[in-house]
Amino acid sequence: MNPVFRRLQVSVTQQALNQVLTLCRATPSIRHPVCAPVNERQYRSMPTHGIGKWRHFLQRQAPKKKKDKHQMKKIIAPTDTAYGTLNVKVSGYDMTVVEHYSQYIHNFCNRLGIKVSECYALPTKSTEVLLMQEQGTKMYVDAILKTHERVVQLSALNAAMCPVFMDVLLKHQPEGVQLSVTEHTEADFQARFKARPEMEGLIAQIKY
């Protein structure tokens, strides 16, 4: 290679290096945050502009409505070809047997296509069995019997299917379980809830 060209290249590179060094000296040195003092907190003066907030991404949900009191459903009136609202009541002292029999009635209605409005339990009733002493007049509690009741409410039961329906239920009725079918009334709806005489008395005092 020609020595003249070599000298030109060396002079050009030296000039470029000199320019870079002058620029580095002229620009202020940038202090890295790692090299900053420990007690200095630079981020306190910097605005965050909502960094890390995520609740504004969620859609606003409507406020939950308060649960209303249980309202009585409309009683279906009977027609020439179908019954109205009927209550199939199952009661007994063994809760397991009563529960299984009510489930059997519910499943049987689903198979026959009979519409079941609802299935619910009535409050348990307790009966005390009293015995009198042989030599005396005092009576003592010998046992406490608890009666469990379940209700399967039907609507628009076909009159032609009713005899077959009742025949199957009676054939599969377990021992110690009572079965009854009655029309649904407002008194049956009120029997679902336990009476609270103390609370009712306080509500009456507040009203008056």
Q: What's the end-to-end separation, in Å?
A: 119 Å
Q: Please describe the biggest sheet, giving its number of strands, its sense, and whether it closes into a barrel.
A: 4 strands, antiparallel
Low-confidence stretches: 29-36
What overall form do the CA principal axes indicate?
elongated
SSE ordering? HEHEEHEHH
Overall helicity: 25-40%
The spatial strand order of the largest sheet comes to 2-3-1-4
H/I helix tally: 5
For the CA atoms, what is the radius of gyration? 43 Å
Kindly report the average pLDDT value: 79
- Number of beta-strand segments: 4
Structural class: alpha+beta
Percent range for β-strand residues: 15-25%
Plain-language structure description:
Helices cover 33% and strands 24% of the residues. By secondary structure, it is an alpha+beta fold. A four-stranded antiparallel sheet has the order 2-3-1-4, with helices on one face. A hairpin with a 6-residue loop joins strand 2 and strand 3 (139-155).
Record keyword descriptors for this entry:
208 residues, alpha+beta, 5 helices, 4 strands, 33% helix, elongated
Element layout with pairings:
Blueprint: H1 3-26, E1 85-92, H2 95-112, E2 116-132, E3 139-155, H3 162-171, E4 177-183, H4 186-190, H5 197-207
Antiparallel strand pairs: 1-3, 1-4, 2-3
Nutshell version of this structure?
By secondary structure, this protein is of the alpha+beta class. It has five helices and four strands. It has a four-stranded antiparallel β-sheet, with helices on one face.
